[in-house]
């Protein structure tokens, strides 16, 4: 019933052959004058059809004996297809053919064309849909005043209109999915998504979590010794998280903020609030470089307060790792930072009260659940997800409706604007000269490459090759190399050398995408920028502009650019605001891909479009909350109609 047409064909009228124009599909009716199998230039069935206005040739390159019989001379047929000029004059290639009797009435509705798959014919789908429409009750579950206010038809009328549109329907509105019948379906789909996610949200609030009220003992001490003051946005985020942590049910909050908006200090204060109550807090990051950076930064802030932090990663020596595991298991250490190593079985966190996941979109659902399941005494820990990839408001309202969302929408003072330049690969020598001049003047630079080894398929410059080329071209500079296949110690040593200024230039893959903070680095070159996603380009660009020097990001691109590549580079060139970039990214990629990494079974919208149908989203949210409060049985019926029991996918 809800398998709705992709488009429609108009078989409610017949067009005279002489009036048929190329470029549009039409239906003609006439008598078969002749029909034969021709062997040249290749085997094909050719028929000539005549009506009162003229003659038309129809050709089939693939055909069955039954079609040959259907097209016997003297038979009356209707053909549906596109007319175009051919060797024999006007012709239709592979039209749909239907034998008719003289005077047979025309259909009274447009013919729906459904999404299908190999081996499933349109005719079979139409029969299945007709059976469903007859068998399934099309009850109206939504309040009449809401439908009237939004000018939406009732459910039964909308479904019948979409499956069997009458001939006088506004075909353009139907094709464009702007017809009231389409809007009715889209509204209910958005409503079901809101109901599902709010139910998941409410279900989580029935679980127990340790209440961690703010005592201020450690948090106030940290705020007093910081060399900077929190921005207004940071203070609001800290207050919202502190309130959630004091509750006896698990926090499920998404903290999002642009590159450099100061999420780490917010996380540090949340971890201290857990420690003030004698509970453990862990911060999990997707890469070793980022995790180690967090560990060092948190250590610098918290060690003066007498707070110890464990460090867990896959590359640590066995003896060191075992020692950290023992300290965590005994409860001696309350705070830990690490990579995926945190969720492996041997890691025991008997007093886990808070789990923070940085760059949460990089982790799958099982990984986040594994962290949650380490909660103390069968309780769920509070969860704080952080993301420097801003989520457009429409996505936050829909796909993330099961989370509380906090936005850091201010940058700390002192961040310098970054000048972005687009440079063709043909001017590479000038870019190398620019890097030399900047480094000799006392600055540091990044040179980012998309791949580690040569890929014949993509033929991209690699980090290894670029490192060798730049080392030869810039003998006066000290150059380091970092990529994902280096051992942890080598990566750490190179990053430390760059951070302390021993290296002028760091050649790297995207392992430096997030979290790397070297204030003296003010120049970045991104090789093959057209190959990167917008979020990645914005993240990489955010590695510079962290000090007082004017910062430049050079995007090196290779011609010819695809339309998509050109669109992405235009957006990153024109915008520095991560939220504006995220909106454009959503527009270019669509929500399916944008949200795909959430990996949580969130029902992707089949019919509603978050850009075009944003006016339906707010009313759907409001009605969802009302139904859950006042009419939970009605809410369950609407969801059953759409989800049919698949709602379990949302539990993560």
UniProtKB/TrEMBL annotation:
Keywords attached to this entry: ATP-binding, DNA damage, DNA recombination, DNA repair, DNA-binding, Helicase, Hydrolase, Isomerase, Nucleotide-binding
Methyltransferase listed as a keyword: no
EC number(s) recorded for this UniProt protein: 5.6.2.4
InterPro entries: ATP-dep_DNA_helicase_RecG, DEAD/DEAH_box_helicase_dom, Helicase_ATP-bd, Helicase_C-like, NA-bd_OB-fold, P-loop_NTPase, RecG/Mfd, RecG_dom3_C
GO molecular function: 3'-5' DNA helicase activity; ATP binding; ATP hydrolysis activity; DNA binding
Entry's Gene Ontology BP terms: DNA recombination; DNA repair
Catalytic activity: ATP + H2O = ADP + phosphate + H(+); Couples ATP hydrolysis with the unwinding of duplex DNA by translocating in the 3'-5' direction
Domain Helicase ATP-binding stretches: 244-408
Pfam families assigned: DEAD, Helicase_C, RecG_dom3_C, RecG_wedge
Function (record text): Plays a critical role in recombination and DNA repair. Helps process Holliday junction intermediates to mature products by catalyzing branch migration. Has replication fork regression activity, unwinds stalled or blocked replication forks to make a HJ that can be resolved. Has a DNA unwinding activity characteristic of a DNA helicase with 3'-5' polarity.
Family according to the record: Belongs to the helicase family. RecG subfamily.
Descriptive protein name: ATP-dependent DNA helicase RecG
